[in-house]
Amino acid sequence: MSQAQTDDIHVLLTAAVNALIAEGILPSDWQNSSQITRSKSADHGDYASNIALIAAKAAKMPPRALAEKLIALLPANDSIAKLEVAGPGFINIFLNNAAKFAVLDAIFTAQDRYGLSDEFADKTVQVEFVSANPTSSLHVGHGRGAAFGMSVANLLEAVGYKVTREYYVNDAGRQMDILALSTYLRYLQLNGAQFSFPVGGYQGDYVTDIAKTIQAQQGDAYVQPMSVITNDVADDAVYDSAADGEQILVSGDKNKHLDGLIANSKQALGAHYDVFLNAALTSILDDIKDDLNDFGVRFERWFSEKSIADAIEPVLAELDSRGHLYEKDGNTWFRSTDFGDEKDRVVRRANGLTTYFASDIAYHKNKFERGFDSIINVWGADHHGYIARVRAALMALGLDETKLEVILVQFVALWRGAEKVQMSSRSGQFVTLRELRAEVGNDAARFYYVARRPEVHVDFDLELAKSQSKDNAVYYIQYAHARVCSVLEKIEEKGFSIDDAKGAAHQTLLSGEMESDIINVLAAYATTLKRAATGYDPHVLTNYLKELAALFHSWYNDNRILPVSIIADATPSADELALMQARLRLSKAVRQVLANGLSLLGLSAPTSM
Q1: pTM (2 d.p.)
Q2: What is the pLDDT of residue 231?
């Protein structure tokens, strides 16, 4: 719906309400919570208002009678052709032709900026998304977070927000130590060492590839005695053989085992330990950046966890000074239950090391200190239990936790027809985002990732995503755009020009119900963007694009744009040319809005298919 049109209608209705207040029919403090909506059928006008239904109780009048009274008091307006009362008391509003077709002028004037606004130009927002540990390539689950987060950020920019897209790089802590250890152990194996690889280590082939690169550059320079990889595990440790014959620890204290191996490696390698840590981090992070860049996902900032290492102790000291920390069993605990969490959380272990949660407290405090008006975290569904403790920490620090919005993105299952695709294996192999993109393409991946609400599980049908049919929504939308391009190309091939002025002069010929429906949907684009942006809900836009494309295809199939005479290389009549230009004008408007919407979702708008 056109924002300008709804604003004008709202002004008129407000004037009528003020008149009712002056007459004593409505109390002076009555709050107008009514809505102006686009009518679903041309028979019911262009817009409808429920104001009489909302105000009836306060006015002590039947809704239909109040609606008649409001219509009588409504100031005259050149844009409105007719008003009528419908149903239990709705006011249906019919626009005159000039107002009705004004949306086409607006589209051609604004072009790729049609639908955008600066309503929230004074607001800043940070959107943190993906933030996968740099311990492996991105998988299909990370892809959904990437597509969703980028689309939300784009939509917020579309309504004026100043957006900072941020990736939090977990380049510190135990997981990075496990990655460095895994790389070093593979390096030792490449140099002839024989031992059972720890179950908690990273076992993917990419780790071996990183180790091979180090070996190619340094040979056996970092080989250490076998004591490095000797570390006692629980007495009940049991090993099992993997598919490749390697023995894997399947029981026993694997965490104690890993921690011992990490400590041994650090002691043996000294400063050279960072060779393995940095090689693994750089290789994997570069892979992630390349993958996301190829997926059309960008960030204003890659925020390093290491960069806030010096901020952890000060933030814990602040929590302690506020009385929110205590000691128990050698650990330091945060009283998160005082702020609604289900249990208290450890921030420093008995060995003196701070936890990942402690780092996250410092990171979120840093976010708030940067002065964003709002902060959005896009997390995987497995982080559900983490929300309460982060909010608790913010409240404990005296920060306004309502500025933080956490959106959980549910898991993705891949299907090939009726068969579910195996997502991962014991050896650490999994379906990567890059593999998915290679099979179905960026456009299909991004569309289907955001075509459902984030809290809904996604069953991704690979065969459907590749099909060229009406059932494949992204293909159907892009085909509508390409169809218009094809028509324009054919007209030029036949030697005819596309005259927007003539199209505008004859647009009253677009009097069919389907044409009115298309125009109404085009007029609703700006409102749709605002709803999708403020609700952090890209699927509102995907549904809109599906609706617009379906309307266009149906109209196109029933209404010939190119006259038969032109197709037959005959001379068209003046009436045929007039109708052609009017229909071309409508088609071009549809093409522009489809292109605008696809762009916000990070999808292409092909000119041929």
Answers
A1: 0.86
A2: 56
